[in-house]
Design goal:
With 188 residues, the chain is of the alpha+beta class. It is 16% helix and 37% strand.
Length: 188
């Protein structure tokens, strides 16, 4: 299950609900929840139109709750995995996933707490990602790739009530910088 949002440009100031948001264009902002399974084409299970100036994550938790209920009402018994970008990283979204028995994979922005967690990762914990364009180095017996991956336990939402504290895997991908001059100190 994927949740996302989009601003659809609207022309003229008379369009009800249209306003300027992060795209700097007058528009209508909608959220959409889609589902994909191996047995069917992608399916829209929930959508909501919002004011153009609303942030992407506003109202996401309730829309997700409706979408999860809809799936279960349709007879879906399989494990549901909710995927979303960092705009949807909130304790309310996670709470709705957990209540519905769904797993979640949410992108996060690298703030202070995330940065501190990443800083604790030892160098030998990183593994190269085997992308399609990766090359096997027989001498070193490893994949040469432009990205590495690891994970570390992380407790999110610690500024919220204890009931909302969520410990999960923080999966971290690091990219190698192509321009060494742009690399901040300590991030080679």
């Amino acid at each position: 299950m994927d949740i996302g949002s989009k601003v659809k440009q609207a022309y003229g100031p008379a369009k009800q609900g249209a306003s300027f948001g992060y795209t700097k264009q007058r528009g209508l902002h909608f959220q959409i929840v889609t589902v994909k399974a191996s047995t069917c084409a992608p399916l829209i299970v929930a959508t909501r139109r919002r004011k153009g100036s609303d942030n992407s994550g506003k109202g996401a938790a309730s829309l997700l709750r409706e979408a999860l209920k809809t799936l279960r009402a349709m007879g879906v018994t399989a494990q549901i995995i909710v995927r979303a970008n960092s705009a949807y990283f909130s304790h309310k979204v996670v709470e709705n996933c957990r209540k519905a028995g769904a797993r979640f994979s949410l992108a996060v922005t690298v703030g202070k707490k995330i940065g501190e967690a990443i800083a604790t990762i030892p160098e030998d914990a990183w593994a190269p990602i085997r992308y399609a364009a990766a090359v096997w180095d027989a001498d070193e017996e490893r994949w040469i790739s432009d990205a590495d991956l690891t994970e570390v336990p992380f407790t999110a939402f610690t500024s919220k009530k204890r009931a909302f504290h969520t410990t999960a895997r923080l999966i971290v991908r690091r990219l190698k910088r192509l321009n060494p001059k742009s690399v901040p100190e300590g991030q080679a």
